[in-house]
Design goal:
The structure is a single chain. The protein is α/β, with parallel strands linked by helices. The protein folds into two domains: 2-124 and 301-331, Quinone Oxidoreductase, Chain A, domain 1 (Alpha-Beta Complex), CATH 3.90.180.10; 127-277, NAD(P)-binding Rossmann-like Domain (Rossmann fold, 3-Layer(aba) Sandwich). It is built from twelve helices and 16 strands. The longest helix has 14 residues, at 126-139.
């Protein structure tokens, strides 16, 4: 089968379109014929080697973290799916590879595709949807009446997280450029800050939650907009000791993670707020919950561009510009 492969790590390295063996289907796996695959900044970071310490993929490996498609084969112990089912998923770490014609995934990581979405729209959802869900519902336990600051509101995670936060009954502040103010307003953002003209830390105060997706400088400023006891959940790092426990890291990595996050944890403690790092994980049951919200109309996908499979490198380059409005998808089938 055809697949886009990382043959060696590097920010400037191109993915190689290669002919590789079809995946082996284990007893709890479903084999999915890929229709579409979402493209994420995470793909770029993994190809560039930024996560080699916590996700040591051995080259060559197939890239891609979002998929929609049709089940073509099921393992002997699969009970949730049958051949012909239309599904979507974020495959588990170390079994990624959606930039390909086929992918095998554990059935627990997979969900039935929302009926009201196209295959391209469905492929745009899993990674950003699960990131927003695990950040706002699972970690922050965001409640009606609380205030949340979601950075980069017009990006993939931002467009989903704003809608989810509004569904939960929160007041939402976000940052974006002037060109995207109407977009984030249409998604439900209450307070919109043009990051090119205004400093969010001078405008926002007494927030319950911040979903941080930007650099260290922005993360440090974000601590100051929280009220005492508030939570900043960062999806862009630095990884913390709790994350080391979650992934059963070895002692050396645990020490490294403690060191990496020491500065920001100290600043958070001084301000009486809580810092945590989120590295989204595969979760089929949470995708089922997200499907309910999509089918009810509470959340709509925000799509920017769909590229043909042959232009996966171009799609990745476009995502790297940081200017996409919502999600970018490649159409494989």
């Amino acid at each position: 089968m055809k697949a886009f492969v990382v043959s060696r790590y590097g920010k400037k390295e191109k993915l190689q379109l290669s002919e590789i063996a079809e995946p082996v289907v284990k007893e709890n796996d479903v084999l999915v014929q890929v229709h579409s695959a979402g493209v994420n900044l995470l793909d770029s970071k993994i190809r560039g080697g930024e996560f080699k310490m916590i996700l040591p993929y051995k080259t060559p490996f197939t890239l891609g973290h979002d998929v929609s498609g049709v089940v073509t084969k099921v393992g002997s112990k699969v009970s949730k799916f049958k051949v012909g089912d239309e599904v979507f998923a974020r495959p588990v770490d170390h079994r990624i590879g959606t930039f390909a014609e086929l992918i095998a995934m554990d059935e627990n990581d997979v969900a039935i595709k929302p009926k009201n979405l196209s295959m391209e729209e469905a492929a745009s959802i899993p990674l950003v949807g699960l990131t927003a869900w695990q950040g706002l519902v699972e970690k922050a336990k965001l409640k009606k009446g609380q205030k949340v600051f979601i950075q980069a509101g017009s990006g993939g995670v931002g467009t989903f997280a704003i809608q989810l936060a509004k569904h939960l009954g929160a007041t939402v502040a976000t940052t974006t450029s002037a060109a995207n103010i109407d977009l984030v307003k249409s998604l439900g953002a209450d307070i919109i800050i043009d990051y090119k003209k205004e400093d969010f830390e001078t405008i926002l105060k007494d927030y319950d939650v911040v979903l941080n997706s930007q650099d260290t400088k922005t993360l440090e400023k974000s601590l100051k907009v929280l009220k005492p006891g508030g939570k900043v959940i960062s999806i862009s790092g630095p990884p913390d000791p709790d994350f080391g426990q979650e992934i059963n890291a070895n002692w050396f990595l645990k020490i490294a993670l403690k060191f990496l996050s020491a500065g920001i944890r100290k600043k958070a403690k001084h301000l009486g707020v809580h810092f945590s790092f989120l590295f989204m994980r595969a979760q089929g049951e949470q995708l089922n919950e997200i499907t309910k919200l999509i089918e009810s109309g509470a959340i709509k996908p925000v799509m920017d561009k769909v590229f043909p499979f042959e232009q996966t490198n171009e799609a990745l380059s476009y995502v790297e510009t940081g200017r996409s409005r919502g999600k970018v998808v490649v159409k494989v089938k």
